[in-house]
Design a protein that fits this description.
The chain has helices at about 15-25, 50-60, 75-80, 100-120, 135-145, 160-170, 205-210, 210-225, 225-235, 240-255, 300-325; strands at about 5-10, 35-40, 65-70, 80-85, 125-130, 155, 180, 185, 195, 200, 205, 260-265, 280-285, 290-295. It has about 325 residues and is of the alpha/beta class. The chain folds into two domains: about 5-155, 3-Layer(aba) Sandwich (Rossmann fold), CATH 3.40.50; about 160-315, Lactate dehydrogenase/glycoside hydrolase, family 4, C-terminal (L-2-Hydroxyisocaproate Dehydrogenase, Chain A, domain 2). A hairpin with a 2-residue loop joins strand 10 and strand 11 (about 205). The radius of gyration is 19 Å and the shape is globular. The structure holds nicotinamide-adenine-dinucleotide (NAD) and (2S)-2-hydroxybutanedioic acid. Catalyzes the reversible oxidation of malate to oxaloacetate.
């Protein structure tokens, strides 16, 4: 057991994903079995009482690794000393709201949270944004944290990645652990590009095991539209799978993946022609607490076209939040 207690701040902690995330984070899902954690739960004032209830349940669970749990309605205090920020709380899209309205509403949330992270978080802060539109919300937060390296702000693409693994394992009768070099590029939206071109299953190219037709006409749309499908079938948006993926994302970033690829939404360094700074899904590997975009992959004309469509959407989102004065 290390003597260091790591602070994990969870926003939207009384919401569905926040609730599903907090208990596993308290059980060691991010830092592992040898690090104690402090959970800081951030909510809006209207949900402060519900957050207090979550904190009571966390205490009642007697997690050996949980050193303390605190609730806040002010981001400045919630992010004090935070090493991990799980930015889940966001305003859902309501009837009649255009995408631009959603971006503007959420800018009001992620700007102040970025500023609070800038002023109060620990030097090793790492942030994953779950609240939608996750990629652009992460961009807004990063822009409000000029003293924090921009690469510490990331967006959740791991749910899309895990969805792809699940579909492929089911189709081929393989174990998810046998699948290597799968990636989801682009935006966490229906425009995303789940890419099998480099994927191996038990060492065999995936595209020798499934047909090109299944890949293009079934796999890609199934993975890209899975969120909407879950809403339709389950009667509510993905919760436990989103929580699980957010924890996977942060655990792998901190503890490393070796040679294994995972998908993360990270600020582009210009790789693969994605404009610098856009928070875009890429295949990455993680070592020593840092991720690296997998370099030098061959991209077919099909892959380039798919990536372009999603990157254009990210560009438009960036323009929309610029026009709304949320970033400069
Ligand atoms: P929810 O409505 O159950 O919970 C959201 C919580 O956030 C609420 O308790 C609300 O009070 C809180 N909140 C709102 N503004 C806040 C603020 N400024 N500070 C702190 N808390 C705030 O929603 P949910 O099902 O938990 O989903 C949360 C978000 O995650 C949504 O935006 C959803 O679209 C998104 N989502 C993302 C993915 C992904 O893969 N990126 C997957 C599923 C859902
Ligand atoms: C998901 O991928 O499940 C969510 O982003 C869907 C949504 O719109 O909340």
């Amino acid at each position: 057991m290390t003597s260091d207690v790591k602070t994990i701040t969870i926003t939207g902690a009384a919401g569905q994903i926040g609730y599903a995330t907090a208990f596993r984070a308290a059980a060691g899902a991010i830092y592992g079995a040898n690090t104690r954690v402090r959970l800081n739960l951030l909510e809006i004032p209207e949900a402060a009482q519900a957050a207090a209830g979550v904190a009571m349940e966390l205490t009642d669970s007697a997690f050996p690794l949980l050193s303390e749990v605190n609730t806040f309605d002010d981001p400045n205090t919630a992010f004090e000393g935070a090493s991990v920020g799980l930015l889940i709380g966001a305003r859902p899209r309501t009837k009649g709201m255009e995408r631009a309205d959603l971006l503007a509403a959420n800018g009001q949330i992620f700007g102040p949270q970025g500023a609070a992270i800038n002023d109060h978080a620990a030097d090793d802060i790492r942030v994953v944004v779950v609240g939608n539109p996750a990629n652009t919300n992460a961009l807004i937060a990063a822009k409000h944290a000029p003293d924090v390296p921009a690469e510490r702000f990331t967006a959740l693409m791991r749910l899309d990645h895990n969805r792809g693994l699940g579909q492929l394992a089911t189709k081929t009768g393989s174990a998810v652990n046998d699948i290597e070099k799968f990636a989801v590029w682009g935006n966490h939206s229906a425009s995303q590009f789940p890419d099998l071109a480099h994927t191996l299953i038990g060492g065999t190219p995936a595209l020798e095991l499934v047909s090109e037709d299944w890949y293009r006409e079934t796999f890609i749309p199934t993975v890209a539209n899975r969120g909407a499908e879950i809403i339709q079938i389950r009667g509510g948006s993905s919760v436990a799978s989103a929580a699980s993926s957010a924890l996977d994302h942060m655990r792998d970033w901190i503890n490393g993946t070796g040679e294994r690829w995972v998908s993360m939404g990270v600020p582009s360094d210009g790789s693969y022609g994605v404009p610098e700074g856009l928070i875009c899904g890429f295949p990455v590997t993680c070592t020593n607490g840092e991720y690296t975009i997998v370099p030098d992959l061959d991209m077919s004309p099909f892959a380039c076209d798919r990536l372009d469509v999603s990157v254009n959407e990210l560009r438009e989102e960036r323009e929309a939040v610029r026009d709304a004065g949320l970033i400069s």
